[in-house]
Every structure is written in C-alpha cells, then in structure tokens.
Amino acid sequence: MSAQLQTYLSRRSRSVRYIAAACTAIFVVSTLYYLELPHYAGEFRFDEHLPQWPAPTPSQYPQDETSSHVWDTRAAQVKQAFRHAYQGYLEHANGFDELRPLSNVGVNNFNGWNVTMYDSLDTMLLMGLYDEFEAALPVVAQGNFTRLRSTPDTNPWSRSGYAPFFETVIRYLGGLLSAYALSGEKLLLDRASELATLLEPAFNPATGWELTYGWRAAVTPSQSGMLAEIASCQLEWTYAAHATVNKTHYDRVSDLLETLANAMEERKGGMFPTGWHLNTGKPVSESRSVGAAADSAHEYLLKQYLLTGKQQDIESLEMYMLTTNEVLTRLLYLTPNRELLYVTDTSGSKFAPAHRLEHLACFFPGLLALGAHAVDLNAAFAGIDRTKLNAEARRQYDLLSQYDVRALHMAAAEGLATSCWLMYADQPSGLGAEVVDMEHTVRDGSSKDAKGILWIDAVEGWRNKGRTGPLPGTDEKKPIPYTLSAKERAPKAPWDYVVKRHDYFLRPETIESIYIMWKTTGNPVWRERGWAIFEAIEREAKTPSGYASLKTVTQSPAPQSDDQPSYFLAETLKYLYLLFSNEDPVPLDKWVFNTEAHPLPVFTWSDYEKHKLGIPS
Predict the structure, then answer these.
(1) Is 486 exposed, middle or buried (0-12, 13-18, 19+ CB in 10 A)?
(2) Does 434 participate in catalysis according to the annotation?
(3) Of 318, 345, 439, 509, which is the active-site residue?
(4) N or C: which end of the chain has fewer CB within 10 A?
(5) How many angstroms separate the CA atoms of 476 and 415, rounded?
(6) Mean of pLDDT values over 79-94
C-alpha cells in the first residue's frame, strides 16, 4: 500500500476483535435498497488522441443539435412531473411515507415519518419550488423521530418494528443535510443532528438501538449483514460533523473509516465481499458484486475522498482503486455477438460469474466516469504499494499497469452505460428491466470459453493486435426491438440477453449514469437518451395521482403496480431535471451526491475543526 496509507494505519489499532465489534455495531436489520434514437459518431477510442485527465474535451463529440430553449422546456416538463407526483402524495398520502398511486392511499414503509417529503426537500430547492419547500418545514419541525409507525400493507422490517439504519440514513438524514446545505435553514441542520444522535447507538456494540426511544434491538450475533449496510454512512456523518463541529458525529465516521482501512489491510487488496458475519466481523463468503448488497459501499469509497476536498481520506481512495482493479479484471464481461459490456457478480471461492446484469448495478458506469473526471487515477494507481498486496491483487495490478488507467475507466464507463441504456431502448415500453441474464456462449458451437468472455481478455487481445479501432464493447450500438415468443419467453437472439425480472421500479441508476456521462463527456447523445427515458416514464408510468412502478417492461402499455417509491422524486426526477437543465446548480467538482442523490457540498476541514474534532493534520 502507499506510504500515506501506511502512515495512517500505523496510528490505528488493527486487532481482529476491534474489527468484529465495530462491524457488529454498525449493522442493523434492514432490507436492501431496491429493489430508436440517433447515435452520434465519436464513440470511445483508446488511443493517443484521447483527452488527458481530468476530463474529455467536448470537441471530440458533435455539437448538440437541440436548442437550449428546447432543453429548458424539457426540464420544465420534468419539474411538472415532480409537482404531479408530489401533489398526489400530499393529497392522498400526507402523513404517510409513500403514495399508492393506483389505490390512492398512503403506506408507511420507512418509519412512518413522511419519507417522501424528506426525500423531496432538496429536489424542491433545485427546481425552485420554494412554496412547496416552505410548506414542508413545519412538518419537519414537528416530526417525532422516537416513534415508529407502520401500516398493514408495508415492508417486512416496518411490520417487525425495526427502523432500518441504512434507509433512514440515506433518505432522512441525507435529505435533511442536503436541504440544509442548499437553503441554510438551521431547522434542518438541527433536526439532522438530532436524528444522527438518535441513530448513533447503532455504532455501540454494547447497547445496539436505544429501547427508550422506541427502537428495537437490531443486532443479533447469529445474523449476517451486507456490505452496503456497513459502509454507506460515511458521507452523511462526515458532513454532519463538519456542519455542526460535533465531535461525537466525527468519531462515529472516524471509527468506521478505521475499521474499513484495517479490514482492507488484513485482506491485502481487492474488493470487499458482499456478506459479513455480525458476530465475528468476518466475511461469510467470497462473493463479489457492484449491485444489490454492495453497491453504495463502493460508491462511498470514492465519494468520501471527494467530499473532503481530496485533502483527507486518502485510504478511501486507495480502497476504491483496489476495488475497481478487481472489477475491471474479474467482473466485466462481453456478450459474444452484440458485444454488450456488462458487470456481473461472482459467487464462491472459485468466483463463478452469474452473467446477469442488475438494474441496481447501472449506477457503476457513472461512478467510473466520476472517478476518471475528478481524480488523477493514473497517479492514484501508481501510489499503490504492489508489495503489500496478495497474489491476486498483484496480478490485477500488473495487468492494469500496462494501460492508461484513467482512459480504461472511461472506456468501461462508456461501454457499461451504453448497455444499461440499451436495456431500456430495446424494450417495447422503453424502460429497463430489474434483472437480465446475459448470454455468454456462442451459439454456433465455436471454441469460445463457456465461462464467458472477460472484457480484460478482449482488451488484451485488442492491445496485442495493435490497438486498432475502438475498444471491445465501446463501438456504436443501436436498439433492437425486443419481442416475446409465443410462450412469453424472450429468445436470446439477436439481443444477447433474456429478461429475467420484468419489473421496473421507477429506478434512478441508469439515469444517474446518463447524467454523469453527459457532465463528464459533453456528448449530447446522453441527453437525448435521457429524454427518451423520460418520455417512456410519462407514457407508461403516469397515473392520475402520481407515477407507478411497472410489472413488466416487455409490454406497452405496461401493466402498473401500486407503488411510488420516494426515491422516484429524490433521484429519478432530480437526475432527469439536472440532465436537461441548462444551468448547473450542483457542479460535480463542488458537490457530491449521496446514494439517494442528496447533494452535499465539497469542503476542507478548517484548522479549528481539526483541533476540536481531533483530525490528524
């Protein structure tokens, strides 16, 4: 590892007992966070003409042929969609967490504290909906965080009386902190600090949740927990510590970062597994994923480094580099005919690939593009001490050392984002399925490896043949209308995938990546793709009172489900609005989005904050 990381770790305890206790403390019972356009020339090419870090030059792409007035009009349509969804919530579900947009009733899925309202506060501010924002403030002021409320038709954790730590942090705490940062309303910071304080017993291995506040104990030694729930609260607690100069808040995030750094040192590189035992603090398997159970943990490694102005948290950046090294060399595959680039998960000690693409994993191309845009990845890669890595991590390092790492990340981002877009554009509904199974063997009986085509192997072949043409998986691709067989089973040819789960839950991940691809490349094709997705949402998901999830994307009109998640207003519509807006109220070099799309401002610790909070200089 780097000398900086070694120095950092030398100040910290590395005992296994500490790691186990801290991991146990952080976990609480929770459910995972779920669950034909023109194509411009100028596809990604990996050669000497690529722009250098930190960002591509817009001149390598065609000019946007859509006028700024049209984009303003499109942004206004997204704003109206938000108003429609939020007003439906207020009319039919005010006082509840979420709206059932078909039956027009409210449901408490997340503690019964009006999660849709809290999740929407910063979206209102970014859209200039100040009347709606100000009307929400008295509700926030009167909210009771010590009382959990459920309804008969609710999520399993709500029926059991548990407050889900992960969802409470990213939706409520993140929403309050972001709205405070955008508005300066001290009420929001006060309520955020109060909520953080109430949540902090979850970090205490001796007490778990405080029963006096109506919480039930949420840590049981026999259970397993997920990586995303261990490592997806750093941003919120870091910004809370900065905004309040509260040492307890800072100590909580410091302990978590220490635990992660110690665990990575013990493992000597690579990705963290998805499942961990709550009692021992050890992995329960060697499964890997960037989708469900792991997604936001990888995201927060990079974003923690960015949030503190790239002046602190160097160990988080190094863990991000070691994680992406493994993704690039072990989790990326190509389909054999259409050459769709996809990221999958692996299971078992042999790392058997599942060859499926989850919608939840479609945030990952945006994360890769953000890292390539914001960080000198080649310098970060060079700073890794190869001699401190295990054999597999060294293999990954040596393989990638032959390439411009920043350019390789951007190539992967381009190919993955294109595949995620095609999962929408191919469908009759124009919207993306929850899970697709990717084809990984050639149908003509040729000698292709039945285990699938690793992207890095294809890239090596391209390099050995003189680096001519675009990288595998990054060439121009067009939608192919997707059809069903007579037995309602989708054939693989010519799509190279089968829709496994047909649902669309109004998810934001693909749109998030499209937004970041637009901001980091300047290629107008991403805006046009986003507009097609919004048109499909309007056509397929709109109801008289809001927007509904869909039961199947392979039909149009698509049958609807009685569900309007709060993240539809917090994330999906926010990213669409920012994609179409000609203004840039939250530029990527000045704001960092938490995993619920709540932007937090980039900052550096002042000398006084370092003194009061005990932050090493």
Answers:
(1) exposed
(2) yes
(3) 509
(4) C
(5) 10
(6) 98
The CATH number given to whatever domain includes residue 528 is 1.50.10.10
- Distances, alpha carbon 14 to alpha carbons 9, 18, 224, 615, in Å: 8, 7, 22, 19
Our answer to whether residue 91 is catalytic in this structure is no
Instruction: Please give the pLDDT value at position 444.
Output: 53
Does 540 qualify as catalytic in the annotation? Answer: no
Cis peptide bond upstream of 557, omega within 30: yes
Is 596 in the active site?
no
Query: Per-residue confidence at 567, pLDDT binned at 50, 70, 90?
Result: very high
pLDDT digits (tens, 9 = 90+) for 427-459: 999 999 999 999 987 655 554 556 789 999 999
Q: Of the listed 64, 258, 434, 512, which one is catalytic?
A: 434
- β-pair partners for 550: 504, 560
Whole-prediction pTM: 0.89
Tally of domains in the chain: 1
Tens of pLDDT, residues 48-77 = 333 333 444 445 678 888 999 999 999 999
Residues in the chain: 617
SS (H, E, C) 10-78: HCCCCCHHHHHHHHHHHCCCCCCCCCCCCCCCCCCCCCCCCCCCCCCCHHHCCCCCCCHHHHHHHHHHH
Contacts of 138 (CB under 8 A, 6+ apart): none
Choose, from 43, 64, 265, 295, the residue flagged as catalytic. 295
Cβ–Cβ contacts within 10 Å for residue 25, how many?
23
Q: Is the CA virtual torsion 292, 527, 421, 534 positive or negative?
A: positive
Residue numbers of the domain that contains 11? 3-35+42-613
**Is 595 among the annotated ligand-binding positions?**
yes
